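Backbones bend. We report:
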Amino acid sequence: MQLVCPAGNLPALQAAIDAGADAVYAGFRDQTNARAFPGLNFSDDELRAGIRYAHDRNAKVYLALNTYPESARLQDWYAAVDKAAELGADAIIVAEMAVLDYAARTHPNLPRHLSVQGSATTAPALRYAFERFGISRAVLPRVLSLQQVERLCEKSPVALEVFAFGSLCIMVEGRCQLSSYVTGASPNRHGVCSPAKFVRWDEHPDGSRSVRLNGVLIDEFTPGEAAGYPTVCKGRFEVGNEVFHALEEPTSLNTLELLPRLKQIGVAALKIEGRQRGVAYVSSVTRIWRNAIDQVIASQAHWQPKPEWQAGLSRHAEGHQTTLGPYHRAWH
């Protein structure tokens, strides 16, 4: 299984590859990728250097061109496809059909991966993208159970990539209506559910903290309490006479214990979420997953996740909590 890791900037790209990533995914410094906000992503020169660094170490670089363009600006996405091909990217990750069609027609030798934002959760959807746009891989949304992933592995005409560790999302991937309602900004093209300019943290005399998104109070934390990302879905709300996480608790997906099963059913690649995270996160999480994958390949029958691996991942988890998410459904 290929280990695909996040690269929000050149130091993160280098850290991921040094820690054992087989491939990294990155974006241009514009709205063609779903993490477009200040301080993140690559200039042309940085990306050229990053691709050279990766290729010198037998690693690959995938370019995320995974947002949905406004029709009047579609040419910007076409230009990004041209640039990815020119710079020598190993694949592009695309959601929008017009962009996939352009890439298939103009750069047929540039591999095309269907983005998680393409929301392909069925075999017919995967078959359509393969037959119409020639995709070679699809990234599955984080809403499928393990049994559903297994059935797709049996029927898919292309290799499948799944998220292994990182943030969860209760919405259709990357298109949150809750946050866009509160901020007026599209998470798809503005880089994040909660753009920094809308977030305000307040420290109180007793050591507690509160966080507001565009003036809307979404959570309060007691002194020393671990805080999740300041997104609407992970806030606490008053419902009836209770205050609780009405939509989703701050927690991170962690599929480490499923690793032998994911390998057995034929998953081709494991993706680590977090291009917005720092170099320490990328380096630590990549190293743990590299060790785990290498050891499950070497001794699958007797493999068990090591406690120190789980402890290391928990330190980087949102709210210091992890979950199997939709992969595990007791009722399924």
Notes: The chain has a mean pLDDT of 92. The CA atoms of residues 257 and 305 lie 6 Å apart. The domain at 2-168+251-327 is CATH 3.20.20.70 (TIM Barrel). The chain is about 35% helix and 20% strand.
